[in-house]
Amino acid sequence: MMMNKWTHEKIQEIFHRPIPDLIYKAQSILRENFPKNTVQINKLISIKTGQCPEDCSYCPQSARYNTDINKGTLEESQILEIAEKAIEQNVSKVCLGAAWREVKDGREFDSILKIIKKIKSLKLEVCCTLGMLNSEQAKKLKEAGLDIYNHNIDTSPQYYNEIIGTRSFQQRIDTIKNVRNAGLSVCSGGIIGMGEKDEDIIEMIKILANMSPQPESVPINALVATEGTPLQDMKKVSIWKWVRTIATARITLPKTFIRLAAGRYGRTQEEQTLCLLAGANSIFTGEQLLTSKNELPNKDYQLFKDIGLKPLRR
Ligand code: SAM
Ligand code: DTB
Ligand code: SF4
Cβ contacts of residue 67 below 8 Å, gap of 6+? Predict the structure, then answer.
């Protein structure tokens, strides 16, 4: 599954290039591989929120931290209603998220398989992010019609243990392998702004870029520092670090959707535009991500109109 085409030194050299060089190169590569001036619009649906046994230091949904979130589980009808509404907002892909450590076989998993079939019949692409999967579960998701599975590596293997103690980096890689072997597309990325060094971001991109085949989708999240989590006091990541991360991902993962994921809320339209110029071609729409605020859909709509971006058609 791993190639070694991209070395740490090569990615480091790209990451530290002058911003104009980075944007020029990243935008050129984006245009060679996707229709120009387009953006993929995704909708997140948190089907099971909170009470997660894991200890991911960034996450408002861990049961170990005292955070102010609305916990609970959505009914099938509620999920379908959100998915149907999303079509009107030019959404091409719906992503179902659950605050689980791993998928457990049984009633809940079976009901997700059923929901995937129903959302597929609306002609939407479907992604799930449900925690760790074994190979049988990955096959069942594929058979139900799932297109893509999200499982992030989050950061470098070196920094990983500072952030997560309840699951290893290798376990994440194993789930990604199970997803790939079942014939599903892979969505895997990470978070910046958790106190990591540039070297950690470079190493994270190296691992993603050397996967063979490369992930079809790479979300770049900027930490949403949430009160009650161990990372609550982290400072907002600098816009230039964000732009460098996105551009480096675009250059090393030319055919991948690079998603400007969490962290857009509270950033200016100009900052977000810089990230899009740097090669991001995918966003989440909607007032909410899983538990945190996201940019308002009307603001996104206006921005795309102002700068001339069109939703990528299904
Ligand atoms: N529980 C499943 C898991 O961890 O795989 C699926 C949902 S989990 C919320 C998906 C991803 O969201 C995490 O891997 C992390 O990259 C991202 N995430 C969670 N909390 C975040 C935060 N506060 N800021 C930025 N990204 C976050
Ligand atoms: C991903 O990389 N980012 C999304 C999605 N995959 C599941 C989640 C972002 C969550 C941000 C914090 C929250 O809203 O709870
Ligand atoms: Fe649980 Fe996923 Fe949050 Fe980690 S990131 S605490 S596994 S919901």
Answer: 60, 61, 226, 227, 228, 229, 291
Per-residue pLDDT at 313: 75
State the Cα–Cα distance between residues 195 and 193, nearest whole angstrom.
6
Q: Model pTM greater than 0.90?
A: yes
Catalytic residue among 172, 180, 250, 259: 259
pLDDT at 79 over 80: yes
pLDDT at 2 over 70: no
* Alpha carbon distances (Å) from 236 to 226, 289, 292, 295: 12, 18, 15, 16
275 is known as an active-site residue: no
List phi, psi (to 5°) of 21.
-60, -40
- Nearest ligand by distance to the CA of 282: 2
- The CATH architecture to which 8-301 belongs is Alpha-Beta Barrel (3.20)
CA angle 246, 248, 132 (to 5 degrees): 65
pLDDT tier, 251 (very low <50, low <70, confident <90, very high otherwise): very high
User: Which one of 128, 172, 180, 187 is the catalytic residue?
Assistant: 187
- What's the whole-number average pLDDT of the chain? 96
15 vs 21: CA distance, rounded Å = 10
pLDDT over 70 (residue 314): no
- Predicted pLDDT at 1: 62
Concatenated DSSP letters of 136-156 = HHHHHHHHHT--EEE---BS-
Q: For residues 200-223, give the mean pLDDT.
A: 97
For the question of residue 259 being annotated catalytic, the response is yes
For atom 5 of ligand 1, which residue has the closest CA? 131
Residue with tokens 């619009």: 41
Counting every residue written for the chain, the total comes to: 314
H-type alpha helices, 46-154: 76-88, 107-120, 135-144
CA of 190, closest atom in ligand 1 = 16
Q: Is 221 in the pocket of ligand 2 (CB under 6 A)?
A: yes
Which protein residue's CA is at the shortest distance from atom 2 of ligand 3? Answer: 99
